[in-house]
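Researcher: Next sequence.
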Amino acid sequence: MPDNRRKSVSRTRTPLFALLAAAGLFATVAPAATAQPEQRHVLLVSVDGMHQSDLAWYTATHPHSALASLVAHGTQYTHANTPVPSDSFPGLVAQVTGGNPATTGVYYDATYNHALLPAGTTNCAGVKPGTGVDYTEDLDLDKNSVDAGQGLAGLPASVLKMTGNPRTLIDPAKLPVDPRTCKPVYPHQYLQVNTVFEVARQAGLRTAWSDKHPAYEMLNGPSGTGVQDLFTPEINSQVPGGPAGGDWTTDNAATQQYDSYKARAVLNEIDGYDHSGTTKVGTPAVFGLNFQSVSTAQKLPVSGGQAGGYTAGGAPGPVVRSALDFVDRQLGAFTAELQRRHLDQSTTIVLSAKHGQSPIDSNALTRIDDGALLDGLNAAWRAAHPGAADLVVQSTDDDAMLLWLSDRSAAATTFAKNYLLAQSGTGNGVTGAPKPFVHSGLTTVHAGADAARYFGVRPGDARVPDLVGITVPGVVFTGGQSKIAEHGGAAADDRSVPLVVSGTGRGQSVGGAVETTQIAPTILRLLHLDPRSLAAVREEGTRVLPELDR
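Model: Next structure:
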């Protein structure tokens, strides 16, 4: 659990509009309020990839920005960390459930489950359990279309007409199968605990969210009804008119265009409409979106003829700066629309990130072909065990190594660990020049029962990886040179993210360690709902964020 010690801070409370007006974002200055107004709306914003250091740099260099205003007049947590693995799925699930992977059951978007049956199974009798669980764009009816196969005319501009029920855009034949029911397991059914969206719904409040794949249907929670309006344009689809194979992440200008659709959805929701802006439904109590622009700017070596990533001194380079400027403009639009709709005094904005990105220092980058390492592991296993199948049945390797094995015995997991730690070779650095590595680029390997202990689950758990490799800082597993950073591991650059709660205080800064899991109970507290309505909060003892827990 995080260290919740905190320094003494000012506890003056001021409405969001008055704070932003004082910062110069609005021409009219509202009179100072004498008491904190009732909080009835929470706008959650995840700027994927953003580090706390990015926020500190941006607010220092752009003191009149929307981001600076949110920080200067909110409660900022300067040592917030995401769960491990620091991937999008466990990162966002943590924010809306209050739980880590051991509790939520969500370790990544592409994992393995030793208890489920392969996708497409229709006669479950006698089928051996064990299958990949792929909750990515691969589930879409058409992953090459930004509407995921809904069949809208006039794309991409018509994308806002997408359904708010993306479950209908998932091909059930691609889902793993539950042996007890012999039916497909949708993402929301895979989540082991409830969400803030479900708690809000049970209290009669409206909910909405915007994200990057229909598989984020998971946010509906076990009830399947948590998010009333879920807008999920497919980010890994082909950009209309773009080069073949080019999705919205391969060019940062395209990513910003993609993100603008989700930002427009939030503006429509602020105005009291559904995400499309066509049906009047009322402003949600819990709503928000993720931005991808910063994340792709950090990964791309070059975009639009400019360098991605960071300068030698750790400051954002030109593409990252452009992405941060874009996000700042969208936040400014949100706050302006909240004021225009007289929702500023009843809305709290929570700003954070599902994950950071590693490495910030591009000189630390070592790209390693994990495919060659795993091919070698499987070959060594078969040589030692004639007639055996491949040992690795699922690998999810970004800047950590997560392996699920066909043989979960202590002998097999130890074999895999020892093999990987014995491998050395040559990868490449940020310029593409050869760069040697040892121990498969890993500092620590947890295998078998030790991997289960690392995550805090019982040995033999059906979902937990059988091997977890913690990388040397800067290692990215990739067979090419198309990216200079990644996330998904345990590195500080992956996990150290911003966390700002705006509309609750004036310039408060909390330096004690907190976790992004604490966002979930805080959202419920802001809505005057019971944080212990969340199963993960009860199981893990997740606390409301400091200074907001009264």
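Model: Residues 1-37 have pLDDT under 50 and may be disordered. Residues 318-340 form the longest helix (23 residues).
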